[in-house]
């Protein structure tokens, strides 16, 4: 699966985990530290899917996804939210912002990959 | 080099933990200072949250459960449901300390520190009752250590087949508008469903299907009915719809209940016949609406399953990475430092041989040697910057010492850090931790008064310790200052007499009395408190500082406080020195200690006594010493004829002039320790090897001139 993935997380460990899990599966991974950084990255990148953390400095995951959905060419890009909580209201907020789905941290790489596969085809 | 990616991430995780703990401390300090804006609280929350997240990935349960409780409390603070008072913030600090301990023990694979349960209970007590109930236990699945991927997914097989009516599922799936708006794709969900087993999928199209309209691409028009001919658990099916169950209508029922679906022949279904279907308005251009109803064929799915354009060229994955960092083993850097030390010596020897060979200064070899020297210096400086670290981490450790020490003696103490980004050699930082800890404990234990005493002296009840770092005169200056009662000199004097460290009738200046604190076996605490009992005396502190090539001085004002100043060399490996001759000896004086050199002229010399001399230096009188004589290389002599003076300065601004016979050169020298056997020689800091292979002593002018004066006329061993 040679997908082009943008992974957004303020934790270096998490970014490393995502990069290793995904590049191991043959994907191209670009990472960003927070929502603002990710939006800058997206000016030059058209990923097949985006994985984003919720809690981040400057611009959090909800704000980031809302901003992505306002960009026309990224309206249908699948975005998976990485959360440590599985609270229903959190999912609702993520959905309202435009998230495609969510992965509960700590993620199981298999589950992450199958979720990615499901949302990207 | 480790090749296990998980081990690497683990290392990187703990390194990140250190950074997170640091930002946690910073943010807590801000909160403690009254900063309660949401970003500050968020920083605390995020730090704990990220530690928990990473720890969860590695299955570090102790860390996860502690961080989880801490995070829960911080979430309450963040949401405004909990407004922390001073005691709550104190608890947050202690929880941060505990978190740090758990991180450390986890990293070192040791037993978790004691007291976790108590701290958890304290944190939990901060929560309102309803919040406590919400606090669900955490269950995490560790990531495991092997990363194997099998991504081969079976292709959709939708060919009509023999259907066994007795098992399987019938699923009706009707997307809402939100499904497409959130980047989900009905076809992909169908595809995932088909991974569970053989599917017969029927697309339900409304009769009044409007013409395609791109502007309404996200309005769902179609719904789907799927027969899954596989006896899978219902939860597996629900799993497929996990991301969309809030943006679609979904009916899942066992196959035998609804069996009116003819799988082989597409048929038109009227909307009224399908109660579950929402009213539909227009068609979607991006959805493969097909004709009427269609079992999805492999071909159809292939066409439709390219929902997003892919970039044609690969994107540089590193293009947007922030500054790249490499972690390097300290040993490797040390080896590099040693090699550069050798290089410096080698270069000096080479220069010496070239000169001995009688090469002219203009020759190519000399020019080449010149640039070789510049390069060596640049390399040395670059390597030294690798070793340099801000003292911040050290200062943060001290903040913790202050918290623990002040709690154990029931004093209120605030630590103020100044200049925590001052960079100091890593080894110096490491070896400074113990002496600094002891000095901070002393300041809390002996330096600062109890709150009631402070109030009586019209001071704020909360004592303050200021820890500062700065670069001064080519050295690093670290100061520990308290606003306590100051050194009780009569008491110090009494104790020294009692312990027979000085004669009862010794006449000592204030500075000399302060120096008594550094004598072995001296302790001002009349009864050893739990705090100082754990520590070591100031003599050990002084020895540790001296072994780093540093000096420690004291200033104290009764009723106002005490300040300890530690002055340290910037690096432990190489220094810029002036090579001089005195009484036939070649000596090196650190350049950082020299302000000026001048020719000695008789009219500037003021003789005070047989041995005491002063020298006028730009309208200022400074003590004057003959270096050769001071070091004992020669006897008293008439210095009128002698040559050159070096004006030296100490960190505290005290100056002294040293007479030397000649200045040879200025150059970098490699510092070589004198070894344990020599012990401390007054005025000598270390030794070096010069270009001609000769060994020369590196002087410490401050110690040479003032060192004797600061250990006053008493016999330490006298009975």
From TrEMBL, chain A:
UniProt GO BP: phosphorelay signal transduction system
Residue positions, PTM 4-aspartylphosphate: 53
InterPro entries on file: Bact_response_regulator, CheY-like_superfamily, Sig_transdc_resp-reg_receiver
Keywords: Phosphoprotein
One Pfam family matching this protein: Response_reg
Coiled coil spans: none
Designated name of the protein: Response regulator
Organism this protein belongs to: Paracoccus aurantiacus
KW Phosphoprotein (keyword) present: yes
Gene3D superfamilies listed in its UniProt record: 3.40.50.2300
Keyword Phosphoprotein in annotation: yes
From TrEMBL, chain B:
Catalysed reaction, written as an equation: ATP + protein L-histidine = ADP + protein N-phospho-L-histidine
Phosphohistidine modification, residue list: 49
Pfam families registered for this protein in UniProt: CheW, H-kinase_dim, HATPase_c, Hpt
Domain CheW-like: 574-710
Top enzyme category: transferase
GO molecular function: ATP binding; phosphorelay sensor kinase activity
Known EC number: 2.7.13.3
GO cellular-component term (any): cytoplasm
Domain (HPt) ranges: 2-106
Region entry Disordered, spans: 270-292
Keywords: ATP-binding, Chemotaxis, Kinase, Nucleotide-binding, Phosphoprotein, Transferase, Two-component regulatory system
GO biological process: chemotaxis
PROSITE patterns linked: CHEW (PS50851), HIS_KIN (PS50109), HPT (PS50894)
Histidine kinase domain boundaries: 369-572
InterPro entries: Bact_Chemotaxis_CheA, CheA-like_dim, CheA-like_homodim_sf, CheW-like_dom_sf, CheW-lke_dom, HATPase_C_sf, HATPase_dom, His_kinase_dom
PANTHER family: CHEMOTAXIS PROTEIN CHEA (PTHR43395:SF10), SENSOR HISTIDINE KINASE CHEA (PTHR43395)
Its biological purpose: Involved in the transmission of sensory signals from the chemoreceptors to the flagellar motors. CheA is autophosphorylated; it can transfer its phosphate group to either CheB or CheY.
Name of the protein described by the UniProt record: Chemotaxis protein CheA
């Amino acid at each position: 699966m040679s997908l082009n993935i943008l992974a957004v997380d303020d934790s270096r460990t998490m970014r490393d985990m995502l990069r290793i899990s995904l590049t191991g599966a043959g994907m191209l991974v670009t990472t960003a530290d927070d929502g603002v950084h990710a939006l800058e990255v997206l000016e030059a990148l058209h990923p097949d899917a985006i994985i984003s953390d919720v809690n981040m400095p400057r611009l959090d995951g909800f704000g980031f996804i809302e901003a992505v959905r306002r960009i026309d060419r990224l309206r249908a890009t699948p975005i998976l939210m990485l959360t440590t909580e599985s609270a229903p209201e959190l999912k609702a907020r993520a959905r309202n912002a435009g998230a495609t789905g969510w992965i509960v941290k700590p993620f199981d790489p298999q589950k992450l990959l199958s979720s990615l596969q499901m949302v990207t085809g | 080099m480790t090749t296990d990616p998980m081990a690497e991430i683990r290392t990187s995780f703990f390194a990140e933990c250190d950074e997170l703990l640091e930002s946690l401390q910073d943010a807590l300090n801000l909160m403690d200072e009254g900063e309660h804006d949401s970003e500050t609280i968020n920083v605390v929350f995020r730090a704990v949250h990220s530690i928990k997240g990473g720890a969860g990935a590695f299955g570090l349960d102790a860390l996860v459960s502690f961080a989880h409780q801490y995070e829960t409390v911080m979430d309450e603070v963040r949401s405004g449901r909990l407004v922390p008072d001073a005691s709550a913030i104190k608890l947050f600090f202690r929880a941060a300390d505990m978190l740090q301990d758990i991180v450390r023990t986890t990293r070192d694979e040791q037993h978790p520190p004691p007291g976790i349960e108590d701290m958890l209970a304290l944190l939990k007590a901060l929560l309102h009752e309803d919040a406590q109930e919400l606090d669900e236990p955490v269950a995490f699945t560790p990531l495991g250590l092997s990363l194997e991927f099998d991504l081969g997914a079976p292709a959709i097989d939708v060919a009509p087949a023999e259907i066994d009516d007795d098992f399987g599922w019938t699923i009706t799936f009707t997307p809402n508008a939100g499904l497409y708006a959130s980047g989900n794709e009905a076809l992909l969900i169908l595809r995932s469903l088909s991974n569970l087993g053989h599917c017969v999928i029927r697309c339900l199209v409304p009769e009044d299907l409007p013409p395609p309209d791109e502007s309404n691409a996200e309005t769902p028009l179609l719904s789907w009915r799927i027969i899954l001919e596989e006896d899978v658990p219902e939860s597996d099916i629900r799993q497929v719809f996990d991301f969309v169950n809030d943006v679609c209508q979904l009916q899942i029922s066992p196959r035998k209940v609804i069996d009116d679906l003819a799988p082989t022949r597409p048929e038109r279904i009227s909307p009224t016949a399908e109660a579950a279907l929402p009213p539909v308005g227009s068609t979607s251009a991006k959805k493969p609406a097909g004709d009427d109803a269609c079992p999805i064929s492999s071909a159809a799915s292939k066409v439709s399953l390219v929902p997003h354009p892919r970039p044609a060229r690969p994107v540089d994955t590193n293009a947007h990475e922030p500054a790249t960092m490499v972690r390097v083993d300290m040993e490797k850097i040390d080896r590099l430092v040693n090699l550069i030390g050798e290089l410096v010596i080698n270069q000096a020897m080479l220069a010496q041989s070239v000169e001995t060979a009688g090469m002219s200064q203009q020759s190519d070899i000399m020019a080449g040697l010149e640039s070789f020297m510049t390069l060596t210096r640049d390399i040395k400086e670059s390597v030294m910057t690798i070793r340099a670290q801000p003292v911040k981490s050290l200062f943060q450790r001290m903040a913790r010492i202050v918290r623990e020490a002040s709690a154990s003696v029931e004093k209120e103490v605030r630590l103020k850090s100044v200049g925590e980004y001052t960079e100091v050699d890593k080894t110096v930082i490491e070896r400074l931790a113990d002496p600094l800890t002891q000095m901070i404990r002393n300041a809390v234990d002996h330096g600062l008064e109890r709150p009631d005493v402070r109030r009586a002296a019209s001071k704020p009840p909360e004592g303050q310790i200021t820890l500062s770092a700065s670069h001064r005169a080519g050295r690093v200056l670290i100061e520990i200052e308290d606003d306590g009662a100051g050194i009780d000199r009569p008491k110090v004097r009494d104790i020294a007499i009692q312990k027979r460290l000085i004669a009862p009738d010794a006449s000592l200046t204030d500075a000399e009395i302060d120096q008594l604190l550094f004598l072995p076996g001296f302790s001002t605490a009349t009864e050893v408190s739990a705090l100082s009992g754990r520590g070591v005396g100031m003599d050990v502190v002084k020895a540790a500082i001296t072994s780093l090539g540093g000096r420690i001085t004291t200033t104290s004002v009764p009723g106002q406080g005490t300040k300890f100043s530690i002055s340290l060399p910037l690096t432990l490996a190489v220094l810029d020195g002036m090579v001089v001759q005195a009484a036939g000896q070649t000596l090196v004086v650190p350049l950082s200690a020299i302000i000026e050199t001048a020719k000695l002229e008789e009219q500037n010399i003021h003789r005070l006594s047989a041995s005491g001399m002063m020298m006028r230096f730009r309208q200022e009188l400074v003590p004057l010493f003959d270096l050769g004589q001071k070091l004992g290389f020669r006897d008293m002599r008439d210095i009128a004829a002698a040559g050159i003076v070096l004006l030296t300065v100490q960190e505290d601004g005290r100056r002294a002039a040293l007479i030397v016979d000649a200045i040879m050169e200025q150059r970098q020298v490699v510092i070589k320790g004198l070894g344990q056997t020599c012990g401390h020689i007054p005025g000598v800091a270390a030794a070096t090897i010069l270009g001609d292979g000769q060994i020369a002593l590196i002087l410490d002018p401050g110690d040479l001139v003032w060192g004797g004066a600061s250990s006053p006329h008493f016999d330490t061993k006298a009975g």
